[in-house]
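forwarding from the other thread:

> can someone predict this with phosphoenolpyruvate?

sure thing
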Amino acid sequence: MITIQAKGVSTGVAIGPLYFYKRAQATLRRYQVEDRESEWLRFKAAQAKAIDQLGVLAEKAREEAGDEAAMLFETHQMMCEDMDYEESIENFIKEDGLNAEAAVTDAGAMQAETFAAMEDDYFRARAADVKDISARIVGILSGVVQGGIDSDVPVVLAADDLAPSETVQLDKSKILGFATSGGSGSSHTAILARTMGIPAIIGLGSQLKPEYEGREVIVDGGTGVVVVDADAETKQRLLKKREELLRRQELLNQLKGQPNVTRDGQSIRIYCNIGNPEDVHSVLENDGGGIGLFRSEFLYLNCDDYPTEDYQFEAYKKVLSDMDGKEVVIRTLDIGADKMIEYFQLPKEENPALGNRALRICLNRPEIFRTQLRALYRASAYGKLAIMFPMVTSVWEVKEAKKMCEQVKAELTAEGIPYSEDVEVGIMIETPAAAVISDRLAKVVDFFSVGTNDLTQYTLACDRQNNDLGRFFNPHHPAVLRLLKLVTENAHKNGIWVGICGELGADLELTETFLSIGIDELSVSPRSVLPLRQKVRDTVVGDVKEKLIDALMSDENAL
Ligand code: PEP
Ligand code: MG
């Protein structure tokens, strides 16, 4: 038995075979083949598999975002069998004796070049598609699995670290738990693990050895322990813990339908954070009162090219319709820093967390922003939408973004397209600048939502991605909590509501503090809703208010 201690970032106990994430190889293998006929058949088999995979993706897209989204994958299916494309692959293999991987890559590059040189915008855009299908076929040929997991049974997934774009593409039904050598508790991968309700452990360093692959492991996301080949006693103990957690969940389930109200009558709204339309299922299952943060950039991360207005519209409409009139706060595109998207072709930066990201990109590239705003306002006709801008530092940014909202609404009116007039427009408070001028910002928006992940990172000058900074990254630091209090006061003085959508919102040690300073809404991962509700219902705010606020301003231990 091997026991490894690291850091748990998503609770729960999982047991299953360990599987190392397979990443696409960066270098293409190129060689001459002897048996050209069987190489050709190898290509044909990979082509058939790619068409099958795309069929599955088309169905998934249809369910999540409607027919138009599915069409992209159906077009890719047809392109896999395009006659010209197939003929040039055949020539490369049968005439030149090239291996299938190289033949597909070269044929794809040639066809992409032809498309790119065309006059018509539609055909020019097909260049990216042909590269994409070629990469898929090459991946299949070289044994790299789309979605990273080639296993018939669910596994505990091990990786060095996973980029958000990799995490969103994983086949979730195959994952029992995560175990990564790098990562940090407030990285987006940890956040996604919590949203998916999957136990996760990070910071394992080199302790998880490749030779453990296939062996039975148990991960305890609460304590951060990974056990390989557990002995009978340990296994029994951890399985018992898993049962207890399930029993506790059953008890929590009894809180469904109950109000989030303290023992002395103070209410708070408990909403959920989601990353894609599928997550609405767990919001409803856990009785979330609404969605306080839909990280819309995950839609972009899931695509190989800019998502169209219609694709986005279908996704937002689905979330709003499924939430059936409950409030849904959709955050506009927040890429940059750790969430990089290749097709945006953003230049490499020395300090990406301080660079061209989020609202800055949207204001610098208004055509992208406009597409998203049109999709959002069109979807507003189907539910209770609020729009939120990320990474604000100045009033002028908000004014400029709101001006674009007005322009989009005027366009839709002129086109006779319906939208709701009651869409609230708010901002995230996740920079110290925004917190400090929150008195001024409160005059131009309908609400604030505090992004404590970034607010901690920027206030403490401490990279949220860097696990080595562990104890320096302290969201309980009085500097962060004082800003939170200031923001709440400024919001309320100006008659607007304030929520928290960073990970700190689910921190039960601070629930009394949040209630004491008067936070109106906490937006947390779906699995955190019921434990938080229980905590709220056990609290008497009157008793603790002054004491807590004092402690908050001057906690000696944290200073
Ligand atoms: C935050 O910064 O707290 C936040 C909610 O946004 P994200 O984690 O997506 O940066
Ligand atoms: Mg943020």
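The first strand starts at residue 2 and ends at 5. thats all i got for now
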